[in-house]
Amino acid sequence: MNIKFRLILMNFMQFFIWGAWLLTIGAYWFQNKHWSGAQFGAIFSTMGIASIFMPAITGIISDRFINAEKLYGIMHILGAATLFSLPLVQDPTTFFWVLLLNMMFYMPTLSLSITVAYSALKNSNIDIVKEYPPIRIWGTIGFIVALWTVSLTHNETSSNQFYIASAISLALGIYAFTLPKCRPFAIKTGNKSFANLLGLNAFALFKTPRFAIFFAFSLLLGAALQLTNAYGDTYIHDFAKIPAYKDLVPVKYPAIIMSISQISETLFILAIPFFLRKFGIKYVMLFSMLAWVLRFGLFAFGDPANGLWMIVLSCIVYGMAFDFFNISGSLFVETQTTPEIRGSAQGLFMMMVNGFGALFGSFASGFIIDKYFTLADQGKNWHGIWLTFAAYALVIAVIFPFVFRYKHNAALKHAIENA
Predict the structure, then answer these.
(1) Taking CA 190 as the corner, what is the angle to CA 185 and CA 193, rounded to the nearest 5 degrees?
(2) What is the pLDDT of residue 340?
(3) Pick the CATH number of 3-183+193-417 from 3.30.1360.70, 3.10.580.10, 3.40.50.261, 1.20.1250.20
(4) pTM (two decimals)
């Protein structure tokens, strides 16, 4: 079977699993379980907690001890078991621990899937900068298909969303064992240093100024991504409390409206090679930050009626905001590190974005919203919330070009020019 098709199928299922519940778990939580908002904040922090250590640990394991595709499969099979167990939970504390366990299995697969894909493409002498983005598009399509499946089958508040995700996770876990072998590269080296034996070499990247700055901004933008995941769908759901909006299609099917963000991703992923070639990775990252400003700013002034175009445009802009940093960032790590530590380095990137970034976004936004933007009736001042988030993204965008002093390294420049 064609290697590109095999990686397309892997990416499709990888993000279908996430799309089946990530944006709709809030509706399930508040409308099905009726547990508290404070407890939901803790629930949504599980992604960040797991991402602080698990991607780095699995990156070390795949670099040192076990084929990446096998580890990838094991994690998805274990993830399927925990997803299947979630609907059986009857109290919020147990729900937290079961979901945390699931995140410990799922979050590392984001970086492992990149490691497996890059390895397979390189072994087939395929240009990763040119060919990986069109393959990665199918992950976004999988996310969209999952959202539409859950929404159109009226499972946004149902436990069925977890059963659907569990079934696909099990299928992907089994399928992973058929993928091209991605052997631990570090075993082949003669380096017997203590750091190498423990697989900690990648952490030395923090000593390099360009990587230290890159990882710091990865954290800050990871917080922005968390704000979207945690509050985007809930924001549109809240319009149902207003009589003038409650019967509108966007309010009845908010997950479908939010899926426009993922549809936009498919277009911007394809545009990445062009933008990298034209502007270089530093400015592609800057464009991402400016896109986050627009993402939040448009949400601030939108509504499901006359302002629907703003919400839709915000979702379109999301494609640039998400892809231009996450995909370009993974390419930056891939081309700026040695083969011995690439799995660990991708894990570090995920740790900063989805780990520390997600935790920072969860706790900071929760504190700010509770203290400054929660009304007496426990409703939310969404206009103020989104403007605050937009200001946060703007500050990051203004600072970034002055501190990230990076020019193309020869390997990345050559790869981009040949894309």
Answers:
(1) 100
(2) 67
(3) 1.20.1250.20
(4) 0.73
